[in-house]
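S., here's the first fold you wanted:
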Amino acid sequence: MTINRRTLLAGAATGLAAGLISRTARATGSYDPGASDKEIRIGQFGPLSGPVSSFGVLANAMDAYFRMVNEQGGINGRKITFINYDDAYSPPKSVEAARRLVEGDEVLFIAGAMGTPGNIAVQKYMNARKVPHLFLAAAAGKLSDPANNPWTMVSGTTYEVEGAVIGRHISSAFPDAKIAVLYQNDDAGKATLTGLKGGLAARASQIISELSYATGDPTIDSQIVQMKVSGADVVSLITIPRMASQALQKMAALNWKPQVYLGSGNSSTRSSLKPAGFENAQGVLAATTRQDPGNPLWAVQRGMQDYLAFLDRYVPNADHADDLYAIGYTIAATTSHVIRSCGDDLTRANVLRQATNLSNFAAPLLVPGISMSTTPTDYVPIKKFQLMRFRGNAYEKLGDLLSVS
């Protein structure tokens, strides 16, 4: 093909015009604090120190993801500035961090903030300021309540939905069960318990032992003894990983073998089952939405391979089996998807609009078949779960996806 001077000039003129249009579009973009032609500032807070500082690796994963995005040219030509603060899992410090991010750093929005108590503490402030408070690493239903707090949304499901799914499965698989429940006596534990009873429906009366513990309790041995004495043959553990491990160990010591159900927050092979001893976790059932990086079951998934390559390059010292890195990765990817969807309209209202109009978004590391969907009146992105059963030293899939409907 022959290219003459006229063709070159025409091409140059077209390119120049396109460049001018692009620059004009960028110059006339809509911006709120935290966004410009070159930058988008995103805030986050969570426990980088204190009793649950291990959760801080979630923020490390988000930071690494945005570094990767920036190396690749940013999003729509803009680099991400990720600013996160330590709240030591203390709600007053969460409020302080949120104010600093919004009023001092002037972030466009907050994403991936960790912890139910802290996020509840800042919710009123964020909504009064009309700053998006999105994809939170927390799951209380009140954090996805568009009627009362339209600027706040969780990253996956809610405790109530998860509890309901487990309750429905117990009701179906063990209709004559005598049920014992151990729950953490806080917003998260109570919300999951409410969902569990809703899922059990008429069979909620089959709960014959309902016990709680406080986060500061050293052990839950006495509760497990009481649950065994009750005669229960199905147990729902609504606990943090440490207490789930203790419960499984104590059941083994008592030679008590009920069917145990765990949830997404305490079913980690690395954090819950390995410390309990794999021999004490055989047959445990868990409802999950994400692929566990430590499980060979997911090794062939392209998304998992991409994730592990990401860790090797951007977080080389990361423990591949720590699923908190995976959660941070998924949240950062979802946040990036929303920003990309905003185009040049980088206002807080449009960020919220895009986040509340997700349509079957297959975020990385979700179990195949599970996706994220939201509407302006439905702020719970994930409503399906995969039931898993622990065998040997890993979970295996059990049946089709579960949902509350």
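And the second, which I think is the more interesting of the pair:
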Amino acid sequence: MSATPVLTVAATLAQGDFVLDVAFDAGPGITGLFGPSGAGKTTLLHLVAGLLRPDHGRIALGARVLTGTAERIFVPPARRRIGLVYQDAQLFPHMTVGQNIAFGRWFAARRHLRRGTNGIEETPRPDALTVEMLAETLGIGALLDRRPAKLSGGERQRVALARAILASPELLLLDEPLAALDDERRSEILSLIEDIRDRLAIPMLYVSHRSDELMRLASHAVVLDRGQVSAVGAAQEVLARR
């Protein structure tokens, strides 16, 4: 990829008989992670998010090292400025839509705290996004007082996206966010992800086992097979052969 990397990954992790051993760069826009079930896609996302530690390797977001085994660096997940959206949305059932979205601001606040001469101080945030603004943008403005149990699958994914975005991430990780949706809801969320990509310019790592999905969304693709990178390059070229 010719653009300056947003994310650089070179990591190895053994989990029983499975070994993930990957090295690649991800630039601006959407980088698709493609491969069959068990290829290591979710494990890789968890390494980037800081939910797992590699046995060996280095993961950097821009110039900031998140994990470096040689340097003994490990930034905790809450300090990484990385948003993670799962297939099942993982909303808090006891909270309303508005409260679920607002929870993202808690992570943003933690990331902007610093120790100053007068104790803990809050640094200025680079964004001015609010729960209401994001809810309207994602088409869920009328749902802020509802509980997750009253939402459709597509609506839950919109809430999960809004919560992740409100955390002011430098990178979004999406783990097969459309896999549980029907074709109509899937098409709606695909359009929203394209809008986030184009309007908010948040770089993303997007996991899917559907090549058509990634060819629509991604500019770059990394193909995983049994824990190894088997192909990397422009999404249209790499995935056309799959």
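Why I say that: The helical segments are 41-49, 97-111, 131-137, 153-166, 183-200, 211-217, 235-239. Residues 183-200 form the longest helix (18 residues).

Talk tomorrow,
H.
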